[in-house]
Amino acid sequence: MTASEELVVQPPQSVTWLVHIDRSMWVGGVRGLMLQALHPLAMLGVWQNSGFQEDPFGRLRRTADFVGRVTFGSPREADEIGRRVRGIHRALRVRDPATGRTHRVDDPELLLWVHCAEVSSYLEVARRGGLGLTGRQADRYLHEQRRSATYVGLHLDDVPGSRAELDAYFEQMRPSLRVTPEAASAVRFLLWPRLPRELRMLSPGKPVYLPFGALCYYTLPGWARRMYGALPEIPQATVTAALKAFRFGMNVLPEPVHDRAFMPATREMLQSSRERLSAAGYDVSRGLKGLTDPRRWPKAAA
Question: What does DSSP assign to residue 94?
Fold first, then answer.
């Protein structure tokens, strides 16, 4: 175990660090929510147990906090949020009005769908937006993310750990997916979001010709867009260009400015991560994002 692995869950040497520090994660996060909504029970779980209708970006920021802690946080911080999330899920139930049955929110099937929709979105958006990952690195990312899945209560061996395994999982799940009224409403909320005050400083990073929510929608797999039918199709080359423009605009923002989009507790966690890594010899003068450059690592970690 290296010194960095003791300081943060996913060290700067990991592919997870490259993906999760990239600002395209905002698009990936919303895309993930749209994809998750196609699972009827998963969508009902969100609808019945959260304030998603009033504050869809609140869910996104809470997800960002969880992902941040199990990536950049210390093992202790990751264990703490894992216990908290598992405790919350353990107490929640989902009632299916079509059958009258009640289901547990921490049903492994639901947890696995949420995880796979989320990590596939992060990876797809980052690579399409211009993050230069090889196929082997993409597989490595999914392999690393199996550890993150254990924090919500999944077993490591049950989680897809490569692109081939993930593709097979989605193929298996597609017959059980559908657009429920709740899913359609969720996508409408996310298509034309009104940014909370704390996020309005991000608006210069939006492509001027595609609203943020529409950009997230158009990055969905073709089969998911066909299911929703919420927007007319446009050339995917245009979507890719818009995504690259968004990613470029966001990635040039100074880290202190960008981090204002997170909840205060998330910002505190990120600052603690910088301090621990700095003390271990990492050059954090350009923030956590600067650690994608191996020249800023101590010799022992390079």
Answer: E
Q: Which residues contact 245 (CB under 8 A, 6 or more apart)?
A: 207
CB proximity list for 8: less than 8 A, separation 6 or greater: 71, 72, 73, 74, 273, 276, 277
pLDDT of residue 28: 97
CA–CA distance, 116 with 35 (Å, rounded to integer): 10
**pLDDT tens-digit series, residues 215-235:** 999 999 999 999 999 999 999
In angstroms, what CA-CA distances link 58 with 55, 115, 159? Answer: 5, 18, 27
Residue 34, Cα to own-chain centre: how many angstroms? 12
d(CA 66, CA 90): 17
Ramachandran sector of residue 2 (left: φ over 0; alpha: ψ -120 to 50; beta: rest): beta
Q: In this structure, what token pair is assigned to residue 99? A: 């059958």
| 53 phi, psi to nearest 5 deg | -60, -35
Which tens digits make up the pLDDT trace of 155-186?
999 999 999 999 999 999 999 999 999 999 99
Facing residues of 103 across strands? Answer: 94
C-alpha–C-alpha distance, residues 80 and 74, integer Å: 10
Residue 285: φ, ψ to 5°? -65, -25
Nearest to 243 by CA among 59, 25, 38, 64: 25
Cβ atoms within 10 A of the Cβ of 157, count? 7
68-92 burial: b if 16+ Cβ within 10 Å, else e: bbbbbbbeebbeebbeebeeebeee
Structure tokens at 54: 């009033």
Facing residues of 93 across strands?
104
Cβ atoms of 177 and 227 closer than 8 Å: yes
Task: Indicate the DSSP class of residue 73.
Answer: S
Q: Any bridge partners for residue 102, and if so which?
A: 95
The Cα–Cα gap between 240 and 219 comes to 8
